Amino acid sequence: MIQWSKEIMIPTDIETVWELFDGEQIQRIMPNVVEHKPIEIKEGVIGSTYQQTYQEGKRKETYVVTIIEYENTDQRKHEKIEFVLAKAFKIQTTFTLLKENDQQTTLIYSGQNEGINFLGRAMLKLGGKKNNEKVVNDFVNLVRDEALKDS
Fold first, then answer.
1. What is the mean pLDDT of the chain?
2. Can you tell me the distance from the alpha carbon of 24 to that of 92, in angstroms, rounded to the nearest whole number?
3. In the predicted model, what is the mean pLDDT of residues 73-93?
4. Residue ranges per domain, the chain?
5. What is the Cα–Cα distance from 135 to 33, expressed in whole angstroms?
6. Per-residue pLDDT reduced to its tens digit, 121-145
7. For a Cys-Cys bond, which of 67, 71, 82, 84 suits 78, CB 3.0-4.6 Å?
8. What are the backbone angles phi and psi of residue 40, rounded to the nearest 5°?
9. How far apart are CA 120 and CA 74, in angstroms?
10. What pLDDT, in 10s, does the model give residues 26-64?
């Protein structure tokens, strides 16, 4: 299993950053997600499901994302999702935004990727921590850059 947690300060308001996690804007911060459509939207958000299609090169994977935690207040925005990718990985990711003041937001991006069969566990070992760190760093930097374009 690979786990990660990365925290960065984004010099803009919390609402601007949070809007990037909306389904209609998700491709700005997750450019490889080529499709994101609701399957079932639950009242209170928790339990809502979305079908996502992820493309890397010519390979496309479609999977169902479930929201398992959700909070949306003036001071704190939080969403935890989980999905199974390629029948080999169970992935959970958490996005937490904390309002520091009107022009500063802390983004905490954390998660885990667990191999759920032999192939998944072997691929995680081969993928290595360095590659995962790069993916995590690239993601938080992209969120910051996109939020600054809107502020």
1. 95
2. 21
3. 96
4. 2-28+73-150
5. 14
6. 998 988 877 888 999 999 999 999 9
7. 71
8. -145, 125
9. 39
10. 999 999 999 999 999 999 999 999 999 999 899 999 999
- Give the amino acid at 87: K
Q: Which amino acid appears at position 21 of this protein? A: F
**Residue 92 pLDDT grade (very low, low, confident, very high; cuts 50, 70, 90):** very high
Q: Do the Cβ atoms of 20 and 97 come closer than 8 Å?
A: no
Mean pLDDT throughout 72-101? 97
Both tokens of 83, joined, read: 């999905």
Q: Which two tokens stand for residue 105?
A: 């937001």
CATH superfamily of 2-28+73-150: START domain (3.30.530.20)
HEC string of the chain equals CEEEEEEEEECCCHHHHHHCCCCCCHHHHCCCEEEEEEEECCCCCCCCEEEEEEEECCEEEEEEEEEEEEEECCCEEEEEEEEEECCCEEEEEEEEEEEEECCEEEEEEEEEEEECCHHHHHHHHHHHHHHHHHHHHHHHHHHHHHHHHHC
Q: How confident is the model at residue 131, as a pLDDT?
A: 84
- Which amino acid is present at 133? E
Residue 89, both tokens: 């990985």
